[in-house]
Amino acid sequence: MAVQADEAAQAGWLTPSPSANRRRDLAARLADWYQQAARDLPWRHPGTTPWGVVVSEVMAQQTPVLRVVPYWQRWLAAWPRPSDLAAASPADVIRAWGTLGYPRRGLRLRDCAVTLVASYGGEVPPDEATLRGLPGLGRYSAAAIASFAFGRRAVVLDTNIRRVVARVWEAEGWPPPSPTAAEWARAGELLPIDPAESVAWNRATMELGALICRARQPDCAVCPIQSDCAWYAEGCPGDPAARPPGQPYHGTDRQARGRVLALLRQMDGESLPTAAIIAALPQPDQAERAIASLVADGLAVRDGAALRLPE
């Protein structure tokens, strides 16, 4: 056993199980595939600042990355440094966030910028544990920033990586709804010790899940590691089309909140009578719930019998 452990360490992996040779081979094939197939996302370009990576990670939470691209570009043009965003008003942030979805993320990103200015000299810290203490950044986001912005070894476990790991190593078509301790442990076993190799692994595995090892329409025929996939070897059990659909949007309170915010963004800082907002939405009770929740989340403030964006 000690000999196996020594061999695994020399191969550059954390543990000898799964086999170091297999993991190294898969990592090399994924890295080669990534060089040819990776999408041209602007935050991957050389010269992107750590702050640019922070913005991309927050914007991409629960949002497809291709939708994020134009917002990210406009955001970085307006607020290229944390100090720029920290000086912006919440209303400016909400207007710039537009229809990206889950607008509280925008305010949390501003809170993050304020904290960076107040406590870190306006710079993004490279340490993963420190990043996890910043507003709006959880375990995944902190690891992704440490890896992609600073080239550090960090276990990045997003939905795409979780699905690839579940299929290739566990023969499971889909991971559990939320990451488990076992998933984090397995991802740590698979991650190369060498920082540069670990970053390449994180990028390539995430991209594989986004482009090929998709949840509903996996394209196994062109997968670069198909021959090593336990799920494929078992015939891809389970029907992807039978998976529960994602959270609906049309007709929900979330959609009503978006409509109210759209009305407020058009007011250019002026207040809009609450009665006019309720009349503009198809369901008065839903409009009232949307207004109350926006106020509770700090996305709107009451101004007598009217509503406006927070300044």
- Strands side by side in the biggest sheet: 1-3-2
Helical percentage: 55-70%
Largest sheet: 3 strands, antiparallel
Query: CATH-wise, what's the superfamily of the largest domain?
Result: Helix-hairpin-Helix base-excision DNA repair enzymes (C-terminal)
Helix/strand-derived class? mainly alpha
Instruction: Summarize model confidence as the mean pLDDT.
Output: 90
Number of helices: 16
Gyration radius over CA:
22 Å
**Could you list the spans in which at least 5 consecutive residues all have pLDDT below 50?**
1-17
Describe this entry's structure for a reader.
The chain has 311 residues and is an all-alpha fold. It folds into 3 domains: 2-37 and 154-242, Helix-hairpin-Helix base-excision DNA repair enzymes (C-terminal) (Endonuclease Iii, domain 2); 42-150, Endonuclease III, domain 1 (Orthogonal Bundle); 253-308, Arc Repressor Mutant, subunit A (Orthogonal Bundle), CATH 1.10.10. It contains 16 helices and 3 strands. The chain has helices at residues 2-11, 20-37, 50-59, 65-78, 82-86, 90-97, 104-120, 128-132, 139-150, 159-170, 181-190, 195-211, 230-233, 253-265, 274-280, 284-296, and strands at residues 272-273, 301-303, 306-308. The chain has a 3-stranded antiparallel β-sheet with strand order 1-3-2. 33% of the residues are buried.
